[in-house]
Amino acid sequence: MSDYENILFSVEDGLATITLNRPDSLNALSSGLKADLLHAIRRLGKPHSDVRALLLTGAGRAFCAGADLTEGGMGGTERDLGKSLMDDYHPILLELANLEIPVLSAINGVAAGAGMSIAISADIVIAAHSAYFLQAFVNIGLVPDAGSTYLLPRLVGGARARAMMMLGERIPSDQALEWGLIYEVVDDDMIELRAKELGKRLASGPTRALTGIRQLVAKSLKNNYAEQLQEEALMQRKMGNSQDATEGVMAFIQKRDAKFQGK
Ligand code: T3D
């Protein structure tokens, strides 16, 4: 199921997969790709009973090489990159952050610039052994954007974030794992399989609780301890009334696997 020029979009067993699909340019974020991505993510933001998790990945040897540097706006002196970020990138990133389903990214190759920002904005990030992460911005005289200055220091700490951003060096997936930037590294020939396996597991999970987790973790970044305890209690009150929580407890008592419906 794909009706886009620059991405592949499919849904299987409750798992939506978006594959960035401009392999000749390492899936660089052209206007067309950004428009397709936003459209597809917005589709998932609508009430959509059969989609309960999203997997983001890339076609070919890259996840995404960041902004398309060959597009007119990037090269000229009249460019307004701030406007381009606000108009084109922020809607994608905010729609992604606000999705009420878990998001997994499978980093099959290089994730550079805004491509890295998108990669690490997922709830769970796995990467192929040969993949690497690159804060490419400084190499072309720019500052990191698309959320990297927010996410990266929180994931790996200020020392590593600043060095990645200022040196613009490739960070191999093994090092990214050691730093806590990502969750898992898998052999290159296993990344697709592992991504589907994890994605389908998320898609058959208690969707409301998974969304609750992503919302609580996002809030924990700004709350103090007492505020966060309060948020947990309010969220747990909602979960306590969910069908999936009832099913989860019943399944435990009956010594069987739970069948979560995402409700
Ligand atoms: O308004 C806004 O959009 C502002 C937002 C900015 C956000 C950003 O993301 S800024 C950062 C932009 N990205 C970069 O600076 C990364 C540029 N790419 C690279 O540094 C290298 O390509 C890589 C390190 C990612 C990979 O290197 P390598 O040696 O494996 O591949 P390559 O030979 O450089 O690239 C292969 C092809 O992809 C090549 O095309 P060709 O020669 O085969 O026709 C190359 O030009 C193309 N390509 C790679 N990155 C981009 C790209 N084409 C357009 N835009 C790219 N970002």
Question: Your description of this structure?
Answer:
- The protein is an alpha/beta fold and 263 residues long.
- Helix content is 47%, strand content 16%.
- The chain is built from eleven helices and ten strands.
- The protein has helices spanning 31-45, 72-75, 81-98, 114-120, 148-156, 158-167, 173-179, 191-203, 207-220, 225-240, 243-253, and strands at 7-12, 15-20, 53-58, 62-64, 103-107, 110-112, 124-128, 132-134, 170-172, 184-186.
- The strands form two sheets. It has a six-stranded mixed β-sheet with strand order 1-2-3-5-7-10, with helices on both faces.
- Strand 2, helix 1 (31-45) and strand 3 (53-58) form a beta-alpha-beta unit.
- Helix 5 (148-156) packs across helix 6.
- The chain starts with 6 loop residues before the first strand and ends in a 10-residue tail after the last helix.
- The relative contact order is 0.12.
- The mean pLDDT is 96.
- Ligand T3D binds next to helix 3 and strand 6.
